[in-house]
Amino acid sequence: MAYVRTVKTASGATAVQIVWSTRRGSRNIEHVGSAHDEAELAALKAAAAERLAGNQAVLDLEVNAPAGSEPLPITSTRMTHLWDALCAAYRILGFESATKGDNVFRDLVLARIIEPSSKIDAERVLTEVGVEPASYATVKRRLPSYATPQWRQALAAASARRAGLGPASLVLFDVSTLYFETDAGDGFREPGFSKERRLEPQITLGLLTDAAGFPLTVQAFEGNKAETATMLPVITAFKTAHHLADVTVVADAGMISEANQIAIKAAGLSFILGTRIPFVACQGGGTT
Question: Is the domain of 40 the same as that of 130?
Answer without folding.
Answer: no
